[in-house]
Amino acid sequence: MSTWGGPVDVTLTNGRVVTPDRVLENGWVSVRDGRIVAVGEGAAPDGPTTDVGGGTIVPGFVDIHCHGGGGDAFTSKDPQKVRKAASAHRRHGTTTLLASLVSRPVPELADQVSALAELVQEGVVAGIHLEGPFLSAARCGAHDPAILCPPEQTAVTKLLDAGKGTVRMITIAPELEGAVAAVRQLVDNNVLAAIGHTDATEAQVRPAVDAGATVATHLFNGMRPLHHREPGPIGALLDDERVTVELICDLVHLHPTAVRLAAHHAGLQRTVLITDAIAAAGVGDGVYDVGGLEVRVVDGVPTLAGGAALAGSTLTMDMAFRNAVNSCGLSLVEAAHATSTRGAELLGLDTGKLQPGCAADIVVLDAELKPRDVMVRGEWVKE
């Protein structure tokens, strides 16, 4: 998928516009020089217009946790494969994403980070998320337990240096030796510290949050379960106003009721839907490699070969949006916040909202809430 024709100056009309506050049933969005300049309801301003035929206009999706798609993973050092993976998700309306890497030995991971850094600077992806290797072996999921290690300062520094400012988030299990110091190190380097793949008690989670951890990596999954006498990481993270919770809204990792309960408790400002997608997203069933482990995808569900452990997803953000609305009971405004606005806010980006001043990253959805047209920075996108 590529942009074509350059930025357009146009007003999208006759749409159901999902703003940060409400839905404009007969709305319009004006785009000039790659930015949104006005949003309104009723008669559109003078100038070129495009009638979206009653489609639903939402901000471009922002995925802060994605490992690949279109048959390729972000672990590849081939820039064309990385572009292909990002393009696969762009077809589904994801205009901004972080490239997530799974656990590997630190030197190997540093090489992957270094290769991706150039594509961040090129704008193919918005940054890098390291999901490991600083994880708990007891809750490793689809990460090779033999590779996992504590977050020593030198290891964290090596990975940050390899990224040259492009590493935006690192997931850490807070019970590991040195975890709290590592969280402070990340915060000092303007990197989001996320808590995940953890067997921690609530008491072990609190110091990491106090030190500056602000994201829960795919809440519920890869964590000690919630118990009424030991809330563990789920209770601690969900109930802390300082923490934004990731939810994999594929209806496989989480039951719709769990999504609804978590999203409504966390609220608009602390809920972000993610895909945790692997290379199989947008391709189909088959056998894939995820961090050196064999993963089998059957009926769209990836699991480790020879076991039942989930290994990422085949989800796309448009599907997460539909699931949130159709199955989990979220409103259009809530779903737009969770799939666009909150992720952009976490990354400090000028996108994720249909309001004047924001980048013109826009998705037009059809009656079934499937992407019909995608705009990136004011340019229409084609395959």
UniProtKB/TrEMBL annotation:
Q: Which InterPro entries match?
A: Amidohydro-rel, GlcNAc_6-P_deAcase, Metal-dep_hydrolase_composite, Metal_Hydrolase
- What EC numbers are recorded for this enzyme? 3.5.1.25
What GO molecular function annotations does the UniProt record carry, in alphabetical order? N-acetylglucosamine-6-phosphate deacetylase activity
Under the heading CDD domains, the entry gives:
NagA (cd00854)
Tell me yes or no: is Membrane among this UniProt entry's keywords: no
Q: What class of enzyme is it?
A: hydrolase
Q: Which Pfam families match?
A: Amidohydro_1
Q: Does the keyword Hydrolase apply?
A: yes
Which residue range or ranges hold the Amidohydrolase-related domain? Answer: 56-381
Sorted alphabetically, the keyword list is: Carbohydrate metabolism, Hydrolase, Metal-binding
Q: Which family does it belong to?
A: Belongs to the metallo-dependent hydrolases superfamily. NagA family.
The name this protein goes by in its record: N-acetylglucosamine-6-phosphate deacetylase
Species of origin reads: Lentzea indica
Gene coding for it: nagA
